[in-house]
Amino acid sequence: MPEFIIKRVLQTLIVVFLALTGVFFLVRLSGDPTILFLPPDAPKDQIAEYRHTLGFDRPLYVQYADYIIHVVQGDFGDSLVTKESALGRILSSFPATLQLALSAFVVSLVIAIPIGVLSAYKRNTWFDKFGVGLTVLGQAIPSFWLGLLFIYFFAVKLHWFPTGGRSASLSMILPTATLAIYSLARLVRFTRSKMLDVLKKDYIRTMKAVGVSTLEILTKYALKNALLPIITLIALDLGALLEGAVITEIVFSWPGIGMQVMNALMSRDFPVVMAGIFVISLIYSVINFAADLLYSVVDPQIRLK
Amino acid sequence: MTNVVRKTDTEEKSMPVLRRKSHFVSFFSDLIRSKTGLAGFFIICLLFVIGIIGFLIVPFNPMDTETAQKLLPPHTEGHLMGTDQLGRDVFSRVILGTRVSLTIGIVTVVLAGVIGTVIGVLAGFFRGWLDMVLMRIVDVQLSFPFILLVLVVNAVLGSGLKNIIISLIIAGWVVFARVVRSEVLAIREKEFIIACVATGVSGWEIMVKHILPNLFTPIIVLASLQVANFIIAEASVSFLGFGVQPPQPAWGNMLNEGKDYIFNAWWMITFPGLAIVITALGINLFGDWLRDELDHDL
Amino acid sequence: MKNILDVSNLEVKFQTRRGGVQPLRGVSFRVHEGETLGIVGESGCGKSVTLLSVMGLLPNDMAEISKGKVLFEDQEITHLKEHERRKLRGSKMSMIFQEPMTSLNPVFTIGDQLSQPLRKHTKLGKKEMKKRIIDMLKLVGISRTEEIIHQYPHQLSGGMRQRVMICLAIICEPQLLIADEPTTALDVTIQAQILDLLKKIKQKNNMSIIFITHDLGVVAELCDRVIVMYTGQIVEEADVRTFFNSPKHPYSKGLLASMPKEDERKQKLYAIKGNVPGLNELPLGCSFSNRCPMAFDRCKMSPPVVKVDGQICRCWLYAEQKVGEQHGE
């Protein structure tokens, strides 16, 4: 077990390190980074001076080594716009993202699993068909458009909620709903199909044959069996949720990491972009790691290696 | 008389061909039996027609700005879906946006699919250090959100149709590589491959003759479902102000322009969004059916 | 002798995506108290469907009992509500399945799964339950019982799992045990042990057993009476001795002839020609007529059910003798 954890931590570090390396070279090789870092109408001497202060006139490998040395010390450089620490800016917006993602996650989980289970149980009835229809539709609706529609109906027309931001107490509702619906469709669909798989298994028939009721089989036995693949999807889905969060944050001006990175991209504030990528890929890896740990708790057949 | 004789002649010769055709026929008769698959198929056909001849049927030039006519609601002065902030006809722009979306969806899926397949096959077949290196790259790419990767790459490369396609390919090939690799690993363990190895068939021949044909189904299914993902991804990126730039009409950038007028022009955010939903719905319905159908055959 | 089970004229229909089929076409048989009945036939002949209908375990979204009655202890059970059926299952009638490897839930301990029928059908307390489980595990020949109840199925061998399955089925001491090819997936030596075990339990508890198999050797060893099924119908019914000495139906003869015998080791085994026809492509009249070496022109019509020397046989060959009722028995 400790061996497994050490191995995974190392793996995570390698992946994050490679991700940073990739983006570093992507940014540097795509042209003179100074120009990316400055407004397009900057005068020539200012560009040259800036290039020197940022160290872009040095050979690439020196720049890379320098960057990595700083990153290892937790220094991602300063924001080119606000001059604050880039990592600090990203981390300060982390709670907002966490709040949005977690609340949406909980909402979608609480709705999706019962619907998925019921849909599988009532297979081919109107309830099931309705549920499946909604999930198919839900997967075809881009979250940013759903967000726009919500803003139009509930904020612009009905004035129930603010159009965006995080200051008002009700401002959470619309982004949470948008993001929850985004992952709801996939979770329902996946829960249903996994439950159907499990309900076909011989061991379910065994339990029926000794007189256990369908409801009990469904909630106690089948759900525990289906939980394993569902956990995998949820882990993957938390990643997707993060992706949806980026878009949702931008639509609702929710001041999370997604919006920070987006703003940084717009203003070509690459130190902040790099710090954002670092934090996001770290979160991703941690989620996957947690899913693996959870796995071993649910399935006695899995020994962590 | 001679005519008749000839006819039966060709009929007999074409027997094997006919048999192969019946596979094709059964494919379509199955499609007709599935309501949802058929609906998806019709939507896709319709989109193709609109994409190809759309420029012939638009009532207005989608680029024509007419500030006097700006922000007209639907059904006024011949504007079926109203006009935008520059007085351009929304209907015509939605129609022309079809071509952009379809082009992006198909081109990116084909290229990302080919690249991903080649890499997946190499990694799965040769294993060893090559597999390790390639799969680390895949891990890295999968360690952050697809959309964010597209955004970052696009921001670095610059906007525009060509660059959004390149960005989508760079971000999208990994899914194919991963699926293909695991399929190859699974096929390698099958008895018939082991039998080939045991009878001394060369590695190259095994790969081309025995492994590649078995990858066809999973790749087709994955690709059909990825088209919708890529179209939505492009729309998202264009919506965020990168990707396809106005005045070129794309559903994503129309929504981007529309969101600034959300207080007084609901039609600007409604119709392009509906177009995306219908497109994604059609492709997904067909893709889901295709997966079930091909699975059924296996 | 008292009947524990009386199935009469049972018909089952399946609805599939590509139309309906009828896997059971009027099946009637009885099981006496304390008797072992063997049901034989090739795959797809309706053996399992028959017994799943008796248990009430047919997949209810696609299968339907369209006709016939099942009397269990003189009570008609096909019309019972699901919760009433549940009371019978696991307590008065229970079933062992073919696949011991997949029939136990991989994420629950053996003890947990064995306690399930007790929780459903008895009012035993925790300690009594555990005692009962351990006693029953010992009965099915498992030592290290204290250890086993905390283990998961994947930690046990196939033979051990089948013992656990048997234990699960008999833990409430049912009157009727249905065994659906319980030894097919096991090694030969384990097979013999499991058969011995079933014999022992039957004697001890005086239950009736229905034993589904396609292995006639097992029938000879274990059963009192035999039913031969083909394409959803019973084609022959006889007591074991009569069946092996003078089978009547050509299909039964074929089955017996295709069984290897010790003194014929070097000879080529007989095989019934052709394959079992699909349920939607049955030949007209006798459904075995297309494979039957004795077929003649009357076989184009539905064969009668005939009683010959205490055997029941569905065949035109014996039609000159006493004709039984046309339908059912």
TrEMBL record, chain A:
Keywords: Cell membrane, Membrane, Transmembrane, Transmembrane helix, Transport. It is a multi-pass membrane protein. InterPro entries: BPD_transp_1_N, MetI-like, MetI-like_sf. The chain crosses the membrane at residues 12-31, 96-118, 130-155, 167-185, 226-252, 272-295. Residues 94-295 form the ABC transmembrane type-1 domain. It is found in: Cell membrane. PANTHER family: DIPEPTIDE TRANSPORT SYSTEM PERMEASE PROTEIN DPPB-RELATED. Belongs to the binding-protein-dependent transport system permease family. This is ABC transporter permease. It comes from Sporolactobacillus shoreicorticis. The lineage of its organism: Bacteria, Bacillati, Bacillota, Bacilli, Bacillales.
TrEMBL record, chain B:
It is found in: Cell membrane. Residues 98-287 form the ABC transmembrane type-1 domain. The chain crosses the membrane at residues 38-58, 102-126, 138-157, 163-180, 218-244, 265-286. It holds the Pfam family BPD_transp_1. It is a multi-pass membrane protein. Gene3D superfamilies: MetI-like. Keywords: Cell membrane, Membrane, Transmembrane, Transmembrane helix, Transport. Its main location: membrane. Belongs to the binding-protein-dependent transport system permease family. This is ABC transporter permease.
UniProtKB/TrEMBL annotation, chain C:
InterPro entries: AAA+_ATPase, ABC_Ni/Peptide_Import, ABC_transporter-like_ATP-bd, ABC_transporter-like_CS, Oligopep_ABC_C, P-loop_NTPase. It is found in: Cell membrane. GO terms for molecular function: ATP binding. Keywords: ATP-binding, Cell membrane, Membrane, Nucleotide-binding, Transport. SMART domains: AAA. It is a peripheral membrane protein. CDD domains: ABC_NikE_OppD_transporters. The keyword Metal-binding does not apply. Coiled coil: none annotated. Residues 5-256 form the ABC transporter domain. Belongs to the ABC transporter superfamily. This is ABC transporter ATP-binding protein. It comes from Sporolactobacillus shoreicorticis.
